[in-house]
Amino acid sequence: RSQRDARLQVSAALKEGRVSATELCQRCLSLIKSTGFLNAYVTVAKGTALKQAEESEKRYRRGQPLGVLDGIPFAVKDNFNTAGIETTCASNMLKGYISPYNATVVQKLLDQGAVLLGKTNLDEFAMGSGSTDGIFGPVRNPWSYSRQYKEKAPPKSGSENEESDWVITGGSSGGSAAAVSSFTCFAALGSDTGGSTRNPAAHCGVVGLKPTYGLISRHGLIPLVNSMDVPGILTRCVDDAAVVLGSLAGHDPKDSTTIQDTFKPFELPNLIDVRKLCIGIPKEYHAPGLSSEILALWSKAADLFRDAGAKVIEVSLPHTRYSIVCYHVLCTAEVASNMARFDGLEYGHRADMNKSTESMYAATRREGFNDVVRGRILSGNYFLLKQNYENYFIKAQKVRRLIANDFVKVFASGVDILLTPTTLSDAVPYVEFIKEDNRTRSAQDDILTQAANMAGLPAISIPTALSKRGLPVGLQFIGRSFQEKQLLTVAKWFEKQVKFPMIQLEVKRHDCSVFQHQKSVSFL
Amino acid sequence: EQVTVDVLDHLEHLALVDFRNAEGVERLRKAVQFADQLHEVNTEGIEPMDSVLEDRCLYLRDDDVTEGNCTKELLENAREKIEEYFVAPPGNIPLPKLEERETFLQRS
Question: A378, B79: Cβ pair inside 8 Å?
Answer without folding.
Answer: no
